[in-house]
From TrEMBL, chain A:
<dbReference type="Pfam" id="PF00005">
    <property type="entry name" value="ABC_tran"/>
</dbReference>
<dbReference type="GO" id="GO:0016887">
    <property type="term" value="F:ATP hydrolysis activity"/>
</dbReference>
<keyword id="KW-0547">Nucleotide-binding</keyword>
<dbReference type="GO" id="GO:0005524">
    <property type="term" value="F:ATP binding"/>
</dbReference>
<protein>
    <submittedName>
        <fullName>ABC transporter-like protein</fullName>
    </submittedName>
</protein>
<dbReference type="InterPro" id="IPR027417">
    <property type="entry name" value="P-loop_NTPase"/>
</dbReference>
<keyword id="KW-0067">ATP-binding</keyword>
<dbReference type="InterPro" id="IPR003439">
    <property type="entry name" value="ABC_transporter-like_ATP-bd"/>
</dbReference>
<feature type="domain" description="ABC transporter">
    <location>
        <begin position="4"/>
        <end position="231"/>
    </location>
</feature>
From TrEMBL, chain B:
<protein>
    <submittedName>
        <fullName>GntR family transcriptional regulator</fullName>
    </submittedName>
</protein>
<keyword id="KW-0238">DNA-binding</keyword>
<dbReference type="Pfam" id="PF00392">
    <property type="entry name" value="GntR"/>
</dbReference>
<dbReference type="GO" id="GO:0003700">
    <property type="term" value="F:DNA-binding transcription factor activity"/>
</dbReference>
<dbReference type="InterPro" id="IPR000524">
    <property type="entry name" value="Tscrpt_reg_HTH_GntR"/>
</dbReference>
<dbReference type="InterPro" id="IPR036390">
    <property type="entry name" value="WH_DNA-bd_sf"/>
</dbReference>
<dbReference type="InterPro" id="IPR036388">
    <property type="entry name" value="WH-like_DNA-bd_sf"/>
</dbReference>
<keyword id="KW-0805">Transcription regulation</keyword>
<feature type="domain" description="HTH gntR-type">
    <location>
        <begin position="9"/>
        <end position="77"/>
    </location>
</feature>
Length: 288, 127
């Protein structure tokens, strides 16, 4: 089983007063789907680009099976990074870009590529720079689902995609992952759409990994409890509250903790908090 | 199938419950093949491992069986097992809730028995 280890990673920019990434530590295991979340400017893209050696850290290391990824061809042939920058010649036709990528990877999945071109209704005779933002993302999505790499990093893959195309992306991601498991790391702001697809949550905040857990772990301890204020208060007494709202005597408390080990009052309603909501509370309050 | 992603139940439990319901109602017949984990995860955009976890619960409960290389099938007698188990849970799931709710509404034991009787009478009239 291959593994990527991110150790003490830091990134400082010359004229910035604070480092973007301070001390980032986490592992990427094989065959998991990670959601990488964080506010705009939290450093998600920079982090991904350093894992793929597109960018050098100021300190720390990225290891692939124990070896540094920097200029390590063996490691880098197993890590694919789909990013917002243009890696391909804009004036080339999509078909030429596809041929180019195909020539770079031995086991590139041409059948899946043909299927995706059809489903997304992509015109491969078009030049890349003549495509809409959404279709430029689609070209990159197709490549990233077809490359035979163990680790696929997707930075905002659905940027500019309409609802139908986002669905095509999600179901094909699931299908190709089931047939041929490998690791995906997906950064996105549309958390609601992938919170059931990912198996792990990574939250980047203030230059560190603020949350790192399996989705089961995280969702088995994030709840919203509502009802008459005094019943809610006595029920949730002692839990770590993230946020609360009150409308007259009706109160809702959001927390990230186990459900209290006491009887649930009949007047109290318990709901699981959606991941998106949970992350917004944490990013907003900065507490965990 | 439907999933309530706000429910406090973990998703793999909901997958198991939904599959069980489909067997109970006969939507998935005994001996018939059930959709693959990939089909279910694709349709509902759920991680395949989560779906598999839910399916395995039903395998452990003797409701589904995996046939090597062919897929997963509803076991003979699965419906009967579900009915038996739901009968056992009926008291906890329905009767205790009924008593709880009736207390809040100040309905006595006799009131409830009368209402239950009325329900059955209406049912008979209709059929």
């Amino acid at each position: 089983m291959s593994k990527i280890e991110v150790k003490h990673l830091a990134k400082r920019f010359k004229f910035a007063n604070k480092p973007l990434l301070n001390e980032v530590n986490f592992n990427l295991e094989e065959n998991e789907i990670y959601g990488l979340f964080g506010e705009n400017g939290a450093g998600k893209s920079t982090l991904m680009s350093m894992i793929a050696d597109y960018n050098r850290p100021s300190a720390g290391q990225v290891l692939f099976d124990g070896q540094e990824v920097h200029e390590n061809d063996e490691a880098l042939s197993e890590i694919y990074f789909m990013n917002q920058d243009d890696m391909y010649t804009k004036k080339d036709k999509v078909s030429q870009i596809f041929s180019f990528v195909e020539s770079m990877y031995q086991d590139y999945d041409v059948d899946l590529q043909a299927k995706l071109v059809k489903e997304f209704k992509l015109d491969i005779n078009q030049k890349l720079n003549k495509l809409s933002t959404g279709y430029q993302s689609i070209v990159k999505i197709i490549i990233s689902l077809c490359v035979p790499c163990k680790f696929i990093l997707l930075d905002e893959p659905t940027l500019g995609l309409d609802a139908r195309n986002r669905e095509i992306f999600q179901s094909n991601l699931i299908e190709t992952y089931s047939e041929n498991p490998r690791t995906f790391v997906i950064s996105t702001h549309i958390i609601d759409e992938i919170d059931r697809i990912i198996s792990h949550v990574l939250l980047l905040q203030y230059g560190i990994i603020k949350m790192n857990g399996s989705i089961d772990e995280v969702s088995s301890k994030s709840y919203s409890v509502s009802g008459p204020a005094e019943d809610v208060n006595s029920y949730v007494d002692g839990v770590k509250v993230l946020d609360e709202e009150q409308l007259g005597r009706y109160k809702t408390v959001h927390f990230m903790d186990q459900l209290p080990d006491r009887e649930v009052p009949a007047s109290v309603d318990i709901e699981k908090m959606k991941l998106q909501k949970l992350l917004v509370y944490i990013m907003d309050r900065g507490k965990l | 199938m439907q999933f309530d992603f706000n429910s406090p139940e973990p998703i793999f439990i909901q997958v198991a419950t939904q599959l069980e319901d489909a067997i109970f109602t006969g939507a998935f017949q005994e001996g018939a093949q059930v959709p693959s984990t990939t089909e279910i995860s694709k349709q509902f955009k759920i991680n395949p491992a989560t779906v598999l976890k839910g399916m395995n619960m039903l395998v452990d409960n003797d409701l589904l069986e995996k046939r090597r290389g062919r897929g997963t099938f509803v076991k003979q007698g699965a419906q009967e097992i579900i009915i038996k188990r739901r009968q056992e849970h009926f008291y906890n799931d329905y009767i205790l809730n009924l008593i709880n709710e009736s207390k809040k509404l100040h309905l006595s034991e006799d009131d409830i028995l009368t209402l239950v009787k009325r329900g059955y009478d209406n049912e008979q009239d209709r059929s």
